[in-house]
Amino acid sequence: MQLNITFRQFGSSDALKEYAKEKVERVNKYLDRAGEAHVVLSLERHLHHAEITIHSGAWVLRGREKSEDMYASIDLAMDKIEAQLRKYKEKIKNHHGRDRVHHRQGLVNQLKVRHKVFELPEELMDEAAEVPAAQPAPSTPAAEQSSTRIVRTSEITVRPMPVDEAVMQMNLMNQDFYVFQHATTHEVCVVYRRKEDGQYGLIATHGTTPTGG
Q1: pTM of the model
Q2: Residue 213: inside a domain, yes or no?
Q3: Rounded distance between C-alpha atoms, residue 147 and residue 98, angstroms
Q4: What is the pLDDT of residues 186-212, one digit of tens each?
Q5: CATH number of domain containing 48
């Protein structure tokens, strides 16, 4: 497995590199082929953040955690990944045996979407909390929008797959949503985990036909 480790906001540590390498390589007991892994270790507001991403064939596994100790954050992030691997171990292996052309890396003309995580100023957070759940939040003026702080930006490749595989990929990445292209309808869809009951929801985009006035 090819492993890359990035340190942000604090100096590189050989001890942490070795510890992260040892922990990440534990996935080999679950996977026939783990191609590459990327570990990002960062310090923010006195908390130690660990983000671990592992590519295995068509699948992406991810765990993010933070604590007051970097070694503990690495452990917690890997615990998330291993929990999903135990759940989907057989499905991942079976899928590797029938790799599809549209899942292979290097496919041209793939659709990509940008995902940004941002922080609202404290006064806007208070306003949002006061809005009743059944009503839409008021639009934010451009001047206030400019005061938001982008915490993280990532690019998501939108791949064609059935809904059940999209749910599986979402869980493997330990996310609450996942953007994909429906394998049958070719619509760009979002599958997400409902907070109310733990079930899954599906949002699909589709074109509309203009009607004459």
Answers
A1: 0.71
A2: no
A3: 48
A4: 889 999 999 888 899 999 987 655 555
A5: 3.30.160.100
